[in-house]
């Protein structure tokens, strides 16, 4: 190692306060680089998905923009160095009908009052003005309806035509249908070809890829049929026409409508994360080998719009950091956290919903932390530790001699706000670093969350001074239910030596 450089690899020693003997010290081996298989992660890795029926709630329109959404998206871009991508879709995209002469942007038809989602909806041309609200660098993936028969095809084509005309360069991809299961390959190809023909005749557009295909859940998650896999979709020819730019799969870590997951059994459980990510590891490697971008295109903690006490508390922020960095270590090119108005797992509530105030939710803090760890893109992530309640990630800059940029430590222990004692882990390291901490009174907290001393107000403003903990020689403490991000300056004044 050249004189004057920081030690960028080595060993971190971890000792929990509950243990005293020397053999209770865990060590974290930190390699020089992420290894040859690590993919390069872009700055928009942490991205969003918004329920079709609620997009207008989230953005408003050009004359009445939703300032909260504008600020929260901008905060994330300020940290990450690029804007999140946004997918508009979900179950309500299947139930959407384009009505060319409808004056109102969108009309939602609720057959069950108070339900999370309308039974059907219609939208008119002014709905597209919602795409003028966020900065023009934000790119969208839009879900088109996929009903069968001539009327179904007509609706797909009319929706695609209006949307393409309105979005133009802001459109990254169209999806056709949401969570359609087996045997759609033939129908999907016919429908996507019909859209391609329409784009060619109406807009003189060539055959550059414009579809994001897949858009289903991992096999076995809804029905016991496990035959319908992404590999089967490829074998059935969904990419054979050369019109597909990416493959999307959805992921949740439990479902509120089938069972009642708990924080400890679902999201504060790194073992469960690993179990679920096995599928994405195998599938993303397969897609990468076939030259197709693999996206986790709709995801969040607990399906069926989330679960209060799990999806909307601080534990979800810890989970989001763990999940995002884990996924970033695989061949996954972006992660789209889904949200809708009133959904328990939304990273923010876009407007007053009943008595629920608009504002950021705990999950949003997890997004800020993960985005900061991957800031600037061109990052590579290596998993350094994977234990049931603890994980650690090394974040490296691709192609930089001084590669190690951050180590992110995630303590997933279920420390509740009401608990008196809070166990901690001490981290002993060998070089000058700074630390930032994501903390709250407990994993069940909905308020009083801080990321390095800063909070995000209900209006979406980041408030307070950044608190950087300087770590020189001494130990860093990580409490139960916290995240700490250690940062290593890329270049350093001469004179530092390894200690
Ligand atoms: C924009 O939103 C406001 C408030 O919801 C509404 O009154 C107005 O009609 C909308 N404008 C357009 C062009 O849809
Ligand atoms: C609302 O949905 C119900 C149930 O699908 C349907 O019968 C009704 O026609 C719909 N109303 C409108 C205005 O679309
Ligand atoms: C949002 O409003 C709907 C309809 O009034 C209600 O059923 C739901 O519980 C509300 N959600 C939240 C999080 O307040
Ligand atoms: C965590 O998930 C694993 C794998 O599903 C499961 O065996 C274990 O019981 C879970 N832990 C808790 C505390 O529920
Ligand atoms: C990414 O995919 C390629 C091609 O399948 C594979 O060689 C590589 O090992 C994968 N990387 C990871 C981290 O799995």
From TrEMBL:
<dbReference type="InterPro" id="IPR052974">
    <property type="entry name" value="GH79_Enzymes"/>
</dbReference>
<feature type="domain" description="Beta-glucuronidase C-terminal">
    <location>
        <begin position="392"/>
        <end position="485"/>
    </location>
</feature>
<keyword id="KW-0732">Signal</keyword>
<dbReference type="Pfam" id="PF16862">
    <property type="entry name" value="Glyco_hydro_79C"/>
</dbReference>
<protein>
    <recommendedName>
        <fullName>Beta-glucuronidase C-terminal domain-containing protein</fullName>
    </recommendedName>
</protein>
<dbReference type="InterPro" id="IPR017853">
    <property type="entry name" value="GH"/>
</dbReference>
<dbReference type="InterPro" id="IPR031728">
    <property type="entry name" value="GlcAase_C"/>
</dbReference>
<feature type="signal peptide">
    <location>
        <begin position="1"/>
        <end position="21"/>
    </location>
</feature>
């Amino acid at each position: 190692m050249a004189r004057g450089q920081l030690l960028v690899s080595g060993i971190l020693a971890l000792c929990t306060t509950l243990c005293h003997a020397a053999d209770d010290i865990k060590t974290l081996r930190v390699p020089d680089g992420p290894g040859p298989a690590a993919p390069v992660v872009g700055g928009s890795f942490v991205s969003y998905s918004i329920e079709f029926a609620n997009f207008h709630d989230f953005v408003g329109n050009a004359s009445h923009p939703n300032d909260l959404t504008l600020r929260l998206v901008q905060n994330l871009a300020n940290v990450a160095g690029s804007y999140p991508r946004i997918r508009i879709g979900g179950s309500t995209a299947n139930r959407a009908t384009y009505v060319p002469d409808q004056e109102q942007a969108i009309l939602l038809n609720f057959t069950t009052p108070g339900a999370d989602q309308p039974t059907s909806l219609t939208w008119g041309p002014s709905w597209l003005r919602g795409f003028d609200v966020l900065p023009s660098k934000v790119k969208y993936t839009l879900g088109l309806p996929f009903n069968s028969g001539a009327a179904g095809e007509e609706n797909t084509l009319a929706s695609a035509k209006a949307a393409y005309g309105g979005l133009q360069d802001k459109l990254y991809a169209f999806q056709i249908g949401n969570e359609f299961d087996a045997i759609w390959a033939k129908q999907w190809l016919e429908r996507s070809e019909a859209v391609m023909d329409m784009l060619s005749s109406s807009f003189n557009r060539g055959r550059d890829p414009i579809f994001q295909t897949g858009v289903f859940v991992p096999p076995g998650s809804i029905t016991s049929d496990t035959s319908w896999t992404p590999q089967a979709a490829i074998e059935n020819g969904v990419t054979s026409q050369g019109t597909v730019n990416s493959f999307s799969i959805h992921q949740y870590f439990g479902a509120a409508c089938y069972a009642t997951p708990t924080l400890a059994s679902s999201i504060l459980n790194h073992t469960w994360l690993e179990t679920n990510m096995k599928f994405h590891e195998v599938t993303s490697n397969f897609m990468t080998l076939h030259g197709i971008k693999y996206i986790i295109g709709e995801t969040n903690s607990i399906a069926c719009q989330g679960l209060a006490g799990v999806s909307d508390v601080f534990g979800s922020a810890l989970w989001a950091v763990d999940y995002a960095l884990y996924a970033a270590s695989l061949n996954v090119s972006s992660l789209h956290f889904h949200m809708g108005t009133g959904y328990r797992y939304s990273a923010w509530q876009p407007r007053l919903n009943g008595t629920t105030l608009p504002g950021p939710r705990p999950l949003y803090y997890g997004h800020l932390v993960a985005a900061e760890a991957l800031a600037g893109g061109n990052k590579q992530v290596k998993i350094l530790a994977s234990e049931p309640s603890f994980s650690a990630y090394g974040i490296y800059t691709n192609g930089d001699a001084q590669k190690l940029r951050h180590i992110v430590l995630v303590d997933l222990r279920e420390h509740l706000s009401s608990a008196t004692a809070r166990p901690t882990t001490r981290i002993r390291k060998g070089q000058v670093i700074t630390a930032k901490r994501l903390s709250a009174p407990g994993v069940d907290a909905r308020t009083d969350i801080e990321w390095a001393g800063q909070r995000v107000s209900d209006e979406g403003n980041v408030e307070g001074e950044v608190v950087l903990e300087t770590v020189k020689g001494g130990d860093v403490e990580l409490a139960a239910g916290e995240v700490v991000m250690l940062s290593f300056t890329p270049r350093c004044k001469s004179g530092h030596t390894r200690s």
